[in-house]
Amino acid sequence: MTDQTLLIVEDDPGLQSQLRWSFDQYKVWTADDRESALAAVKRHQPEVVTLDLGLPPDPGGVSEGFATLNDILSMAPQTKVIVITGNDDQFNPVKCIGFGAYDFFQKPIDPTLLAFVVSRAFRLHALEEENRRLQRMHITNPLEGIVAASPEMHEVCRTVERLAPTDITVLLLGESGTGKEVLARALHALGPRAKKPFIAVNAAAIPENLLESELFGFERGAYTGATQQTKGKFELADGGTFFLDEIGDIPLSLQPKLLRVLQERVVERVGGRQPFKVDVRVVCATHQNLAKLIETGRFREDLYFRINEMIINIPPVRERTGDVAVLARAFLEKFAKQMRRAQLLGFTDEGLAALEAYHWPGNVRELEHKIKRAVVMAQGPLIDAKDLELLPTSAKRRLLTLREAREMAERQAIGMALSEAGENVTKAAELLEVARPTLYALLTKFNLKV
Ligand SMILES: Nc1ncnc2c1ncn2[C@@H]1O[C@H](COP(=O)(O)OP(=O)(O)OP(=O)(O)O)[C@@H](O)[C@H]1O
Predict the structure, then answer these.
(1) Atom of ligand 1 nearest to the CA of 286
(2) Per residue in 34-62, pLDDT tens?
(3) C-beta neighbour count of 379 within 10 angstroms
(4) Of 14, 40, 111, 244, whose Cβ has the fewest other Cβ atoms within 10 Å?
(5) Taking the model in full, what pTM does it have?
């Protein structure tokens, strides 16, 4: 027997038991009036219901059946209700479907046909559930490897999705640790070059005198110690994506050579005389203000125009509405699993308040490190401000309106509850102590696509 649950609402005991036996491959529950039907829906959450329209106290009519249909669908809108009636009013089918029933059946019942309709209803329900699950995942995982609940980051992710299939050079602007590299990887992974290399170079991390050969490669004998020809990173990225992080740190002397690669996709190794073509998609990033660097003569304007075909501004964590809680939760799960600390369940209210109040100058990277440390340090089942080495600060933040504060809190609570409930809306609604329809209404209100 499967876990698929069927509720048969039928007041005729003979028909009820006939139906019960013909569906023994499902978990079957029965009810014979509106009250017991609603109790069974609440308790057993059947995916499919067969509903006799003629229920007491109106067994010869349809009023009680329609009221039951209406109540079931208000309580559990995803349920597939198959209406069965002996009443041959030709308008009933239209009315039932208009009320949200999945299908309509006239008595006498053809068991083979009904079995077929019921199994199709289960299939459709499963497909819709899977669809809802995928959409819910999208709330906190808008892109592979990216955790975000804020509309600001969802917008960034949508832009990444739109740009991924193109070869447009993208410039990612954002403070350190905001996720520029993760987004560059997403641009690569979602595009046609996904199976080819993704090569990242951080210009700030490589000494100036080594940067040219790192980027463009060198020929044997190009300088003392150059014992063999070596490929540069551009060449290694051939066919794929080249991610140049901290482009603002590229020395002025190298900028013309870089401009040439970007303009003509041509590379020349240090000490080489034969320029050759490379096929790369280029993504650049910086936390610096390039306009200022241009003003002070440290960055070429023509290079700037080359790399800014499309700019994506990544907001700092303190400006993302509702991201801190879901990021914290995701990192807690990741590190608790890695470090086998399954007893860690979440954050104390004070811990969460401290996370929210902090201004995160190091953005997601800092948040990740703080949670990692706290997972090691925490003694009880909940992480508090002390474990995080944070005190609720009085750091100046823009004063929120009451409405903004309420919405932010609601959004965070929903994100946390969904994450806690493994993305199961029913469980999340229980954790939040609201009815499922209320949670759905809130998800819609916050444009969370369920
Ligand atoms: N939205 C996110 N969801 C999950 N993890 C994230 C997210 N953003 C960033 N991270 C993680 O935070 C860390 C820093 O991200 P990343 O290296 O992409 O930032 P960056 O902006 O490139 O930093 P820098 O400017 O210092 O190079 C990484 O471990 C990354 O996996």
Answers:
(1) 25
(2) 999 999 999 999 999 999 999 999 888 88
(3) 9
(4) 14
(5) 0.63
